[in-house]
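Q: Could you write out the predicted structure for this multi-component system? I'm mainly interested in how the pieces pack against one another.
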Amino acid sequence: MDGYYAWMIMATALVLMMTTPALALFYGGMTRSKSVLNMMMMSYLSLGVVGLVYVLWGWSTSYGGGGNGFFANPFDMFGLHGVSPDGGGYIAVAFQLTFAVITAALISGAVADRVKISSWVVFIVAWVTLCYFPLAHMVWGGGFITEHWAPQDYAGGTVVHINAGVAGGILALIIGRRIGFKKEPMRPHSLPLTMIGAGLLWFGWYGFNVGSIVFADDWSTESGAAANVKQFVSETGFTFLTTTVATCAAMLAWLVVERLIHGKATSLGAASGIVAGLVAITPATGAVEPVGAIAIGAIAGAVCAWAVSLKYKLNLDDSLDVVGVHLVGGVLGTLLIGLFSSSAAPGGIDGLFYGGGLGSLGDQFMGVLVAVVWTGVLTTVLALAIKYTIGWRISEEAEVDGIDSDQHGESAYDVAVGTGVLS
Amino acid sequence: MRLVTAVIKPHKWEDVREALETFGVTGMTVSEVSGYGRQKGHTEVYRGAEYDIALVPKIRLEIVTEDADADEVVALIVKTAQTGRIGDGKVWMSPIEAVFRVRTGDRDAAAL
């Protein structure tokens, strides 16, 4: 048990690193040089803002008492009132806090280069309250979804990735396209930053997935504690390995698709494939055996590589592909559990390919459906409310000149070349 | 006096410099520039989005020579920078009235 808590402190710090700096770097490198600071700040502000909100009413809304199936009472444990640090209570809060932070930050990729930073702050406070905490309650807090279908979501396929993916798509739609979308080249300004970010995300994801273990037995009895230690040792190995091989497979699959369609395997494709694989294995990491994980990773890598091109057909400026990677990858990972889950994995349920019939697939599908509907409706209402009150967009002139200078009064790079005497 | 200006492929720059030095050209101004001609740009693909990159990187040389040497300098650049493929660049010459050395105030041939 001591070892478990030592690991959870480490895992929590790893997940924190996924937002700052990993996601900030991953996204920041993909924007144009005039907006990289704003993009990174959206992640850093998610940490600042959601980190506080989580302790005030986030934990209570997710895991407090007085629940109605959809969310718990936000005031029941407001400010962690009644939560004891003993028995790992605060460690659990800290770990879950980092999940709320990164989910909010993930959305920012859909609205790069054009959103007032003040509106972003207002949005994430309201969004985690209306969408993240309730879904965490419904899936992990014993609420509505778990009560009715009990789909498997080991580390956040529905709560984190489908949730953020739907929200990102809706924001991109309501906020509108960047000036010059589809006309001007909007190339990533620094792929090395993106590559570093993707690598750090992969590293941090071990905290995310392997830290999401839930014990079956009671620690207070001797036999229960022994069973839990046994579970810890086998299950962490399981989730660590499935996370690894799914991500390897997804990266390669993305590169193969690119190579076949466009002739070159790109570094951006590798970085994107890594994230697509991590997203897809997130719900499934404890549900499938290693070979199943390879299959899920490969499918997610290939499908997401194709899905990111849809935004041009739909004319939807989901700038950094939050829908194409997180929604598509999250849905795939969550649904493929229904096919590839195995009773030999910690989840203990056989999916369709392991002779378990369609039951698991149906449960997984309902989990996806409720998550999409819940977050789809509430994000739409929230995004429209902000649009018609404080507004989302910076001025056209500011957007063309660069959001970094308009919103933060800074530029990322000293662009002078040579001696610099003329700058 | 003449000013010879050449815009060439970056990978040919070392060969051209060597040839000009052997010929006796003592100095030049070199800059990294971008542009396009009949070669147009090239395409790059990011997450499935194909971008036409209009500007191609080139090296620009500026050499001041005496009238008598100008034709030979141009011919040397053309010969050395040539690959025969589209995008090899351009060389042009223009008359200039005078050239001065800043350190001494020398004029024209003495200033080269």
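A: Regarding packing and overall arrangement: Chain B touches chain A through ten residues (CB under 8 Å).
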